[in-house]
Amino acid sequence: MSASATSLKTGSKRFDSALNLQVQRAMPYLWRALLATEDALTTIPKVLQEDINTAYPAFVCLIGTVLPNGYAQITPRGSTMVFDDEHFALWERGRGSTTASLADGTKVTVYFRKPPLRESGLLPRGGIARFYGTAKIYKSGPIYEEIWKRLIEPEKKGDPEKKGFGVLIKVERAEDLSGAPLTI
């Protein structure tokens, strides 16, 4: 049996160290993300909130969900807004495959890109922030009304009869384009 096979079989420190180094080299972004999970930001940074709330029309957030067939559904949502430090809100007009895939507990990605924020140094790597969270649907009540009240006028015009519904997304993780925790 070779020395390397012996090391593999016995689980020596030398093998463990070599494997650790290989994993770090092979998957740097995943490795860094796994190590930083405990430190991941779970709020929407105050310095980004105004940029997100005024993103329409030039820098509209993209919303990602998973369709029943397993494909990602990515769609722009001009109604995306910061509801509070821990939640995004959006108005779903009730049409299309995104609406069909949204329910309480749906996992949602909010993708925000504003290149001038990279140029200013606020957001690294393309001026991109990704937020991951879980949706809760509101079809009536005070939160439903508050989302409608805060909704920008162009989005209200898209649903003049108010047939849509409100969605709150509780932020569970925030990261930059490389997958590193957002630390601004």
Question: Could you describe the 3D structure shown?
Answer:
This protein has 184 residues and is an alpha+beta fold. Strands 2-1-5-6-7-4-3 form a 7-stranded antiparallel β-sheet. It is built from 8 helices and 7 strands.
CATH class type of the largest domain: Mainly Beta
- Sheet with the most strands? 7 strands, antiparallel
Name the assembly state.
single chain
Which value, in Å, is the CA radius of gyration? 21 Å
Spatial strand arrangement across the major sheet: 2-1-5-6-7-4-3
Please give a handful of descriptors for the protein shown.
disordered N terminus; 184 residues; Pnp Oxidase, Chain A; alpha+beta; 2 domains
Secondary structure layout plus pairing:
Blueprint: H1 3-10, H2 13-26, H3 28-36, H4 46-53, E1 61-66, E2 72-77, E3 81-84, E4 87-92, H5 96-101, E5 107-113, H6 115-119, E6 128-138, H7 142-150, H8 153-157, E7 165-175
Antiparallel strand pairs: 1-2, 1-5, 3-4, 4-7, 5-6, 6-7
What's a quick, concise take on this entry?
This protein is α+β, with helices and mostly antiparallel strands and 184 residues long. It is 35% helix and 28% strand.
